[in-house]
Recover the amino acids of this structure.
C-alpha cells in the first residue's frame, strides 16, 4: 500500500523526512536542515511507493503541531477547527500555521507543542503497533496569530515557561524544569561533584539550552534544598565516587564486574568481591571499605563478555594465585597465537599488543585498532574469535542495532567485527560510527529518544579489531595497524581452533589478575603529569616553549631511544607509536625494533600518492593491450562493443600486483584496484561486464572492455594486425 500525503500538506514551503516502514524516527542525518524534501520530490515519492513512512518537519512554512496524548486534553483541544490526525496510540496531532516558534512540553508531560526542528509522523503512515495515523478532521490548516496560540497553551504550561522563577520546593512538580531540578537533587544526594552534575544534566534539553545564570541558580537552590532536608553536602565535600557499570579504575582502587550485579575489587589494603545494592535515595551502589561507589547506570545484570570461574576468583582473593609479570603474560599471548594461527612472525607481537591494549583502555585517552585483511578462507574470523577470548570485555558483534553504542559505553566493551567492509556499506550504520568515533575518549555517539527527542550521549571509546575482505575508508585505516592473513597449510589448525576457548582461558585468567594487581599503578603513571594546570596561563612563555614543556612532561618516562623513534614519524603514525610504547612500558616490554618495522611499513603505504598508483595501473593496462590485442579470443564478437579489446579483470589485477611488487609495494586490495579502475573510466555494468573467454560458451568472467573512452584515457590506438587470406589458410 502506497501512503499518500494529504492535500493540506502539499505545499511547496512544507518539508518532509523519510521514516522506515512502521517507524517514527528519521533515518537520514541532518534531516532538520538538509535531508528533507518537498511533497513532490521524486525521492520522497519513491520512498512512499516502497512502503516507507514519512514525517513532516515543524518550522518550514510556519507549521506548528500540538501533539496531545492525554484524553482530557484531547477533548478540550478538539473544539478547534483545524486539520487533525489521530496517532497510532490514540493521541492527536493538531496542525496550525503560526509565527509562534517556541517548543513546549505541557505540564505532566501530557503533550507538546512542536514548533521548531521537530517532526511528527504524517497522516496515512503506519505506527509500530500496526495502527494507521488517521485524519479525524479533514479541514484546512488553521492560521493563528502567535499571541493567540500562546494564549491557548499557556494554562497548561504552568511553571515550564519561566527560566528564572521555578517552584523548587514543590515535591510533585512535573514540569520539565521540575523534573530537571529533581534530577539535580538526586545527583547531589549521590555525592556527585558540581562538574559531574553539569555534565550529566546536558542530556536535558532545557538545561542544555538555558543560559549559565539559570544553571547556576538551579544548582544553588538544589544545594540549599538538599542541605535543608538534613543531608550535609557541599560542592567540594564528595562522599562517594561516580562509576559506570562496566568497571572503575583510580589510583586507590580497581573494580571489575564478575557476574550478575557482582563485582571484584582490589584496594591498597584489601581485595574481595561484593554484590551491588539498591537504595531509593542512592540508586544502585557498592559499599567497599566504608566508601560508596554509585552507579551512573544500573549494574550489569548479564555481562556481554566472558567472566572468570568462581574457583579462580576465590583463589585470587585468598592470595593463592601467583600473578605473572607483564613479560611472562606477553610471552603467553605470543605462544597462544603462534599455536593456533599462521602469520608472518613480525605480526604476532602487534596482535599481542592489541590484546594488552584492551586491558589498559580504562586509563588511556586514545587507542589504535587492528585490522585483518585477506581473502575468504584465510583465517580472519578465527583470529577475531581467538582475540576476543583473551581481551578485556571482548565482544564479537553479530546483528547490530542502535544499542551498540550504549552497550560499549555501559559495559566498556572491546569490539571485534568480522568483514566490516560488508557490514558498513551504508557507511553510517551504528557499528561503523562507533568504530569511526571510538578511537578517542569523550568523542560521543549521539542519538535521540524516540518519544521525547531528548539527546542521549554514549562514549563508544575502546579497543576494536576487525577484518576486511576488500577495503575500508582511509580514515579508519589510518587509525589501524593492518595485518595480512594467509591460508594455512597446517591441517591441524582447524581442529585446534575448535578448542581455542579452552586453550585461551588460562591466558585470559593471567591477564585478568594482572589487571587487578597493576592497573592502579599504571593509572598513577599515566596520569602523573603536573604541568597541565600550572603553566597555560603563564604569559612569560611562548607557544613554542609551552608545547615543548608539555611534550617533555608527557614523555618524561620515555628513554632517549624511544624519543628518537617517535621523532622518525608524523601524524597518525606517531600517535599510534606513542600508544604502543605506552603499552610496552606498562608490561615492561622492549619492542622498539618490531614497532619501527611495522610503522615504517604502514607509513610507506600511507605516503604513496594515489596519482602515482593510478599511473602504474595505466602502464599495466597499456602493456596488457599491446601484448594481447592481436588475439581474437580477446575481441568482442557481437553487441554494442563489437570489435573492442577486452581482458579479464582478475588477470588484470594479477598483472598490476606484479608491477606493484616490482616497486616494493606488496600489499594492495582489490577494493582499491576497483576504485582506480573507476578513475580511468571503467564502470561496472557499462564497460566492465561478463564476457566469454575463448570458444567455450560456459567460460565467462568479468572483463574490462577497452572502448573509445578507455583508449583515449590510456593514450593508445587500437589497430590489431590484419590477417590476409593466405594467413587464414596458411598458404605458402
Amino acid at each position: 500500500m502506497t501512503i499518500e500525503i494529504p492535500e493540506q500538506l502539499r505545499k511547496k514551503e512544507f518539508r518532509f523526512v523519510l521514516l522506515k516502514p512502521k517507524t517514527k524516527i528519521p533515518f537520514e542525518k541532518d534531516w532538520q536542515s538538509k535531508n528533507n524534501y518537498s511533497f513532490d520530490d521524486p525521492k520522497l515519492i519513491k520512498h512512499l511507493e516502497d512502503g516507507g513512512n514519512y514525517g513532516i518537519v515543524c518550522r518550514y512554512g510556519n507549521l506548528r503541531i500540538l501533539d496531545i496524548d492525554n484524553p482530557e486534553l484531547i477533548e478540550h483541544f478538539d473544539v478547534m477547527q483545524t486539520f487533525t490526525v489521530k496517532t497510532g496510540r490514540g493521541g492527536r496531532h493538531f496542525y496550525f500555521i503560526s509565527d509562534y516558534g517556541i517548543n513546549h512540553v505541557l505540564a505532566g508531560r501530557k503533550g507538546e507543542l512542536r514548533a521548531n526542528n521537530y517532526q511528527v509522523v504524517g497522516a496515512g503512515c503506519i505506527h509500530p503497533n500496526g495502527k494507521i495515523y488517521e485524519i479525524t478532521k479533514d479541514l484546512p490548516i488553521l492560521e493563528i496569530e502567535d499571541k493567540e496560540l500562546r494564549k491557548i497553551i499557556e494554562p497548561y504550561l504552568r511553571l515550564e515557561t519561566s527560566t528564572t522563577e521555578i517552584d523548587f520546593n514543590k515535591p510533585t512538580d512535573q514540569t520539565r524544569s521540575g523534573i530537571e531540578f529533581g534530577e539535580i537533587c538526586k545527583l547531589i544526594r549521590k555525592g556527585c561533584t558540581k562538574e559531574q552534575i553539569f555534565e550529566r544534566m546536558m542530556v536535558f534539553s532545557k538545561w542544555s539550552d538555558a543560559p549559565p545564570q539559570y544553571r547556576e541558580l538551579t544548582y544553588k537552590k538544589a544545594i540549599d534544598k538538599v542541605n535543608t532536608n538534613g543531608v550535609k553536602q557541599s560542592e567540594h565535600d564528595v562522599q562517594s565516587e561516580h562509576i559506570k557499570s562496566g568497571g572503575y579504575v583510580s589510583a586507590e582502587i580497581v573494580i571489575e564486574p564478575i557476574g550478575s550485579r557482582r563485582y571484584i575489587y582490589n584496594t591498597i589494603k584489601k581485595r574481595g568481591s561484593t554484590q551491588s545494592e539498591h537504595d531509593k535515595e542512592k540508586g544502585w551502589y557498592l559499599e567497599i571499605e566504608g566508601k560508596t561507589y554509585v552507579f551512573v547506570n544500573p549494574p550489569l545484570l548479564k555481562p556481554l563478555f566472558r567472566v572468570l570461574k568462581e574457583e579462580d576468583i576465590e583463589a585470587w582473593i585468598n592470595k593463592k594465585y601467583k600473578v605473572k609479570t607483564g613479560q611472562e603474560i606477553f610471552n603467553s599471548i605470543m605462544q597462544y597465537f603462534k599455536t593456533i594461527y599462521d602469520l608472518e612472525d613480525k605480526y604476532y607481537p602487534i596482535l599481542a599488543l592489541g590484546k594488552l591494549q584492551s586491558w589498559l583502555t580504562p586509563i588511556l585517552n586514545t587507542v589504535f585498532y587492528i585490522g585483518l585483511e585477506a581473502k575468504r578462507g584465510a583465517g580472519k574470523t578465527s583470529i577475531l574469535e581467538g582475540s576476543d577470548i583473551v581481551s578485556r570485555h571482548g565482544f564479537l558483534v553479530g546483528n547490530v542495532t542502535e544499542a551498540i553504542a550504549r552497550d560499549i559505553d555501559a559495559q566498556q566493551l572491546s569490539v571485534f567485527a568480522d568483514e566490516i567492509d560488508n557490514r558498513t556499506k551504508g557507511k553510517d550504520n551504528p557499528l561503523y560510527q562507533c568504530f569511526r568515533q571510538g578511537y578517542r575518549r569523550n568523542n560521543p555517539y549521539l542519538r535521540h529518544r524516540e518519544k521525547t527527542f531528548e539527546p542521549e550521549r554514549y562514549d563508544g571509546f575502546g579497543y576494536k579489531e576487525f577484518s576486511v575482505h576488500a577495503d575500508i575508508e582511509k580514515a579508519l585505516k589510518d587509525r589501524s595497524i593492518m595485518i595480512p592473513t594467509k591460508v594455512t597449510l597446517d591441517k591441524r589448525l582447524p581442529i585446534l581452533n575448535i578448542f581455542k576457548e579452552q586453550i585461551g582461558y588460562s591466558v585470559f585468567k593471567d591477564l585478568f589478575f594482572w589487571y587487578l594487581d597493576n592497573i592502579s599503578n599504571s593509572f598513577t603513571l599515566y596520569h602523573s603529569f603536573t604541568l597541565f594546570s600550572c603553566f597555560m596561563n603563564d604569559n612569560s612563555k611562548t607557544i613554542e616553549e609551552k608545547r615543548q614543556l608539555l611534550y617533555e612532561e608527557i614523555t618524561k618516562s620515555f628513554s632517549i631511544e624511544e624519543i628518537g623513534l617517535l621523532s622518525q614519524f608524523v601524524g597518525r603514525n606517531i600517535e599510534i607509536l606513542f600508544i604502543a610504547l605506552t603499552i610496552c612500558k606498562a608490561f615492561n616490554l622492549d619492542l622498539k625494533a618490531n614497532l619501527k618495522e611495522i610503522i615504517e611499513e604502514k607509513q610507506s603505504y600511507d605516503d604513496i600518492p594515489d596519482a602515482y598508483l593510478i599511473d602504474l595501473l595505466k602502464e599495466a593496462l597499456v602493456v596488457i593491450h599491446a601484448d594481447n590485442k592481436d588475439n581474437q579470443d580477446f575481441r568482442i564478437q557481437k553487441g554494442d562493443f563489437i570489435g573492442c579489446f577486452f581482458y579479464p579483470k582478475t588477470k588484470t589485477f594479477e598483472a598490476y600486483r606484479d608491477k606493484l611488487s616490482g616497486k616494493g609495494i606488496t600489499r594492495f586490495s582489490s577494493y582499491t584496484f576497483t576504485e582506480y579502475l573507476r578513475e580511468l573510466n571503467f564502470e561496472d555494468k557499462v564497460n566492465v561486464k561478463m564476457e566469454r573467454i575463448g570458444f567455450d560458451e560456459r567460460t565467462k568472467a568479468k572483463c574490462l572492455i577497452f572502448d573509445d573512452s578507455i583508449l583515449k584515457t590510456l593514450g593508445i590506438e587500437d589497430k590489431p594486425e590484419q590477417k590476409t587470406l593466405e594467413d587464414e589458410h596458411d598458404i605458402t
Summary: The chain has a mean pLDDT of 84. The radius of gyration is 32 Å. DSSP finds 26 helices and 28 strands in the chain. The first strand starts at residue 16 and ends at 19.
